[in-house]
Amino acid sequence: MEGDDEQVNELKVGTIHNLKVLRKIDTGYVLSNGEKEVLLHHNDTAQPLNEEQEIEVFLYHDKKGNLVATTSIPTVGFDSFDWAEVVEVVKGLGVFVDIGMTKEVLVSNDDLPMLEKVWPNVGDMLYVALGTDKKGKLIAEPVRESDFGDDWPKAPESLFNQPIAGRVFRSSKEGAVIITEEGYRGFIHHSERNQDLRLGEWVEGRVIKVKDDGTLNLSLLPLKQERRGEDAELILEFIQNNDGVMSLNDKSTPEEIEAAFHISKSAFKRALGKLMKEKQVEQRDGKTFLSSSQT
Predict the structure, then answer these.
(1) Are 138 and 61 in contact (CB under 8 A)?
(2) Which chain regions cross the lipid bilayer (predicted)?
(3) What is the arithmetic mean of pLDDT over 17-41?
(4) Which CATH code for domain 82-143?
(5) I need a surface site. Which of 121, 155, 206, 293 has the fewest CB within 10 A?
(6) CA atoms within 13 A on the CB side of 35
């Protein structure tokens, strides 16, 4: 048991301790657990301290690699998760996050998506825990789905077709997984979004399915009838800006339509049908023109 106590009291990076103030020096305070000493810099404590005073501190490495203390206790630990704001993005290295202490902590590019375009931006939030790298330096590690297991709150069926919001904590070609404000797991298939989603991005959408296990399928796209109106406006504006004519029609290939408008052929045909029904455009000679009433 004595060995276990020694291990608990060992001064290691990323751990919290109650240490005694031995003395004040020019740069701060020297703290001790009775065996080892660490420095508490002046900017790592909010108030003056007295000798023999016992304080709770968190241990981390300063820029020189020395083990030092801070009275700012992080909101995350090796076995506890929390949201941390991204404060800096360094291409090729990773992102730095604020975990509630004076020094920001790195989330390595090894723990971020391969595509940098879906890396978080400054201001995004990552759900992280503490870890250490191969050199023993303190880092933050994003939560994996496996860390949750099946321990997700079960969403009620009444959420179907309701608006919902949350933050992305996994992003891939297949889609993105978010944690909603209520803590539910939500999946957004790539076909239910207009663009790739960043890790840590805040998104707002609607529930399109409440699954039997209580997780959700979500969409960030407007309802089909709303999309048809938006797509129709896009097409009409395009024709107006191109002297009243467009080389595309309802027989154009999906590739041609995707290149011009970034929508599917079926969406294009629905929007074009709406414009023709409203007599805003007409087709002839394989092209689409503004109708005579619009010119």
Answers:
(1) yes
(2) none
(3) 93
(4) 2.40.50.140
(5) 293
(6) 5
The neighbouring-strand residues paired with 209 are 217
Q: What pLDDT, on a 0 to 100 scale, did the predictor assign at position 294? A: 59
Q: Positive or negative, the Cα torsion across 241, 246, 248, 250?
A: positive
Which residues is 125 bridged to in the sheet? 85
CA distances for 140 relative to 5, 64, 143, 148, 286, angstroms: 27, 19, 10, 17, 58
What does the pLDDT average to over 175-190? 94
2-70 belongs to CATH 2.40.50.330: yes
CB 38 within 8 A of CB 9: no
CATH of domain 224-290: 1.10.10.10
Two tokens, residue 233: 């406006």
Helices 265-277 and 224-240 pack at an angle, to 10 degrees, of 70
pLDDT band at 6 (very low <50, low <70, confident <90, very high): very low
Residue 128 contacts residue 84 (beta carbons within 8 Å): yes
Within the chain, all domains assigned CATH 2.40.50.140 are found at 82-143, 149-219
Each residue of 130-178: pLDDT tens digit? Answer: 999 988 889 999 988 888 777 789 999 999 989 999 999 888 888 999 9
**For residue 142, which phi and psi values (nearest 5 degrees)?**
-65, 145
Label residue 175 left, alpha or beta by phi (over 0 means left) and psi (-120 to 50 means alpha). Answer: left
Residue 9 CA to residue 17 CA, distance in Å, equals 8
